[in-house]
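Morning run. Coffee first, then this:
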Amino acid sequence: MHVDHLTLACLRDELDGLLGARVQGVVLTDPRSVGLELFAGTRHHLLISADTQNPRMLRVPQKLRRGVQTAPPLLLLLRKWVRGSRLIDVTQPPWERILTLHFDGDAGRCQLVAELIGRYSNLILVGPDQLVLEAVKHVGPDVNRYRVTLPAHPYQPPPQPPDRQPPTSASIDEWSAMLSSAKAGTPLHRVLTGRLFGVSPTAAREVAARITGDPDAKARQAAPDQVARTIAELFAPLDDGRWAPEIALDGDGDPIAFAPYPLHQFGRTQPVPEISEALRRYFQHRITSDRYAAARRRVRESIRQAQSRASRALEQVREHSVDESTIAALRQAGELLLAYQHRVDREARHVTVPGYDGEPRTIDLDPGLTPIENAQAYFRRYRKGIRASKEIPARIRELETDLAYLAQLDSDLTLAEDRPEIDAVREALNEAGFVVKQERHSSGAMVKKPRRFDIQGFAVFVGRNAPQNQQVTFRRGTLEDLWLHVRGRPGAHVIIKRAGRQVPREVIEDAAALAAYYSPARDHRQVDVDVTERRFVRGVSGGRPGLVTYRNEKTIPVEPRRAEELQ
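And here it is:
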């Protein structure tokens, strides 16, 4: 369950009642969450979180408390730009899971952009010149060269997926073509989330439930005019503002879902006066019901610290790298000084002599050294540069591998379903040397076996953490088997056992859906998954468990699905 476009549109209308409010306080309730205290005749408290597992924005009844001991740059800049300012607008880009709060204060106008998009959620403070002032998460060109999110860089909104259209603009003919082109047995909700902007899995299943009574109804069970009419009803509040928030409850009365419209897909529902109340009740239960939240948080903090250390080390190593032309210039400077030492004046700071190409070459000098001593100093720098040219690339590769492995462990922690799986991530951190103080505990039962599924008679193995990925790829998989992995992200290694048979495309797509589900991208509508033969997968030389390179891959887009959802 995630905050989608319609939920944020409903919240945007709710927050319109706070326009003109003065921001009296700003706190960081945790490293990825901002709390604002606003005064508009009465006090209001707004929580905005870019938490990977629970991204959200909502009004809360209680005063929000500081959750970080030291003030990071983001908090200092929020105090400068936002505290004391007035909230003058709340906007939402078309069909996006983004809300932008606009403020006007003594420092000038600024924006706090809340991108609540699953694993890639972020809170970004943008100045009046549209340059990023600071963000909860820095995204450099090494992570995303198309969209850099760093201070002093222009803010760029996330790109919208191609081949989709707004849900309210499709004609009956387009709906007919969309539904008839779906493969037999494809659920209607998969067609809607794959072809339309702004339609989350919850909204798509709601459409199916309203038409057929079954949220998992097949696409060909719905008539085009019914789909068009139901979509229009669901999105009508974007124009008329007639929202009707509800929460869905399980048998114990605990919230299991929320929406800004009546939820026909659930048996037991309850209307609430505002979407903030629905969000508060849902996330409060979700967060407090995680029995392993404290253990998960401690391990994640260790991962974050290790990532920070590795990133700083990588930056420092790159700063000390020397290119070949610079190394050659150092050697030539030493040789030229020896050849033309008689031209160097006493205590000179530089000398100009003929270079190897016949052009004049100016060489900087230390006036306290003799010409021969200056030449020797250049040779020492030359030898140091030679050593660096051999050592630094290897060190860069090592640190990049460490960061890739830490990203995988972060993914493993996100997907861990019980305490043994959380402990397995902690053990992997210890064994890899990322935790400064080793923690002693038994790891005998920590690493479970990979999951095995049967898809149309084909055995499919899925690794859910780094050790399992290593086992799936290099012990379960043979050279002829198919290997799958989410493109460009950490996640599960998946093997389809061929046993000498041709694998149908439907089996590959279902296995790819599992690979997408067992990755941090599981809440995305569509995920790219690479498929290749196991023979083209190689472990990273000197790398950590489960880190591989591969080639000859084909990429297919799929919707993440659990095994229970496979047709």
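Residues 438-446 have pLDDT under 50 and may be disordered. Good start to the day.
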